[in-house]
Design brief:
The complex is a heterodimer of chains A (about 280) and B (about 150). Chain A is about 20% helix and about 30% strand. With about 280 residues, chain A is of the alpha/beta class. Chain A folds into two domains: about 10-100, Beta Barrel (Elongation Factor Tu (Ef-tu), domain 3); about 110-235, Nucleotide-binding domain of ferredoxin-NADP reductase (FNR) module (Rossmann fold, 3-Layer(aba) Sandwich), CATH 3.40.50.80. Chain B has a single domain (about 5-145), classed as Jelly Rolls (Sandwich). Classes of the chains: A alpha/beta (about 280), B alpha+beta (about 150). Strand 10 (about 180) of chain A pairs antiparallel with strand 5 of chain B.
């Protein structure tokens, strides 16, 4: 009889290349110490375990078509994420995954696609962007709207600039505040929706960022005519087991770890504003 | 329909505006062209005019004492710049600077206020257009004050 692997035992991964994205955001490549990296779908996450410190859920931010390593982008906001962000090349950590529901990149084929990212939310969306750009002819208009705090907080800056130069892609970037040297847009990211060129009746919206930003954005997409059943959000809750057993990430009738993180807006809109949830 | 009236009514701000009110509003309008770096208005100045942006980009900024200006919003094609003309004492509450070559229609504030006072239907039509913009900017401000991308928040 084949013995099933214990889902709570992390697999050792070694840190490869490390890139400091901004003053508090770091991207790491993680390769399995032995064996192959499992395939994953855009939007899924892994549980990263720093030995002796703790475990945290982090979405994959790399290209799902690339083999070898996982790419994770981490913001130093807590004890565990800070420890991950400080790891250097050659360090070892534990990894469980991939887990969770993906972005609906295949269901969106034939439609316009509107990606809306806020702050670090660009990282979990990036695998979906890679997927769509690799099959560009299978989609209608593709729009990337990105909002962040200030010009120095723009994530994946060189890549965003490269996307902006493409003729088959509309990329609008805005910041919450800037000094007079900034020549781009200033304002919140939902305001960009009215300026973007897409057909709301045949568009799929994929939104990731702080929950307040996602609520405002979902409202703006709805106001623009995108049906709530075509809007997808990546939710974040306190994930512990990641396999729907412990209940820490319960979100109304769902568990974010297994029913999410990517969830359809029409299914969660009513409970997003319930304080007790 | 005269050229300026056509341009005014073609602006997103006046979408769905009653055509017969067009000449009334355009009678208070004039064309503007602002070069990059040129100011449309300065904080504290009388708000004698507000602007319908046709092309370009305008930065709304505040100058904290001893610091460089902070841009808190940019407005572009289809947006309006200025709502202080509606509220006494009718003075600008921020600086407005053209970031790039900007073409705009300026609406004389006293002229339009007087016409709104004389014709409540025109006044109500204007309010129906201005209030959603003010509410939208209040929403934006709430999001900015929350600093949702700041450290300690996801």
């Amino acid at each position: 009889m084949t013995e099933l692997a214990d889902p709570f035992v992390p697999v050792p991964y070694r840190v490869g290349r490390v890139r400091r994205e901004t003053h508090d955001i770091t991207t790491l490549e993680l390769a399995p110490v032995t064996g192959e990296r499992p395939d994953y779908q855009p939007g899924q996450f892994n549980m990263l375990y720093v030995f002796g410190i703790g475990e945290v859920a982090i979405s994959v931010s790399g290209d799902p078509a690339a083999s070898g390593s996982y790419v994770h982008t981490v913001r130093d906001v807590g004890v565990v994420s800070g420890a991950i962000a400080r790891l250097g090349a050659g360090a070892t950590l534990g990894l469980r995954g991939p887990y969770g529901t993906p972005w609906p990149v295949e269901a969106a084929e034939g439609n316009d696609v509107v990606f809306v990212a806020g702050g670090l939310g660009l990282a979990p969306l990036r695998p979906a962007i890679y997927h769509v750009l690799a099959r560009r002819e299978q989609y209608g208009r593709v729009v990337i709207l990105y909002g962040t705090r200030s010009p120095s907080d723009i994530l994946f800056r060189h890549e965003v600039e490269r996307w902006r130069r493409r003729l088959d892609l509309e990329v609008l970037v805005t910041v919450d505040r800037a000094d007079a040297d900034w020549r781009g847009d200033v304002g919140v990211v939902p305001r960009l929706i009215a300026r973007a060129g897409f057909d709301p009746h045949s568009s799929v919206g994929m939104v990731c960022g702080p929950e307040v930003m996602m609520r405002f954005t979902a409202n703006a997409l709805s106001a623009a005519g995108v049906g709530s059943e075509r809007i997808y959000l990546s939710m974040e809750r306190n994930m512990k087991c990641a396999i729907g057993l412990c209940g820490h990430c319960q979100f109304g009738p769902d568990f974010v770890c297994k029913d999410g993180p990517v969830m359809r807006y029409d299914r969660i809109a009513d409970i997003m504003t319930v304080r007790e949830i | 329909m005269e050229g300026l009236e056509r341009i005014v009514l073609a602006h997103a701000f006046f979408a769905g505006f009653e055509e017969e009110l067009g000449p009334v509003v355009s009678g208070c309008a004039r064309n503007h062209r602002f070069n990059p770096g040129q100011y449309l208005a300065h904080e504290g100045d009388p708000a004698n005019e507000f602007f319908l942006i046709r092309h370009g980009k305008v930065a709304l900024e505040i100058l904290p004492p001893g610091q460089t200006p902070i841009v808190f919003s940019t407005e572009g094609e289809g947006d309006i710049v200025g709502t202080s003309w509606l509220v006494p004492p009718y003075r600008w509450r921020f600086d407005a600077r053209a970031v790039e070559l900007t073409r705009a229609i300026g609406i004389d504030a006293r002229c339009l206020r007087d016409k709104c006072e004389a014709d409540p239907r025109l006044g109500y039509e204007m309010m129906k257009r201005i209030v959603p913009i003010i509410v939208g900017r209040l929403d934006d401000t709430r999001m900015q004050i929350l600093d949702v991308y700041g450290k300690g928040r996801k």
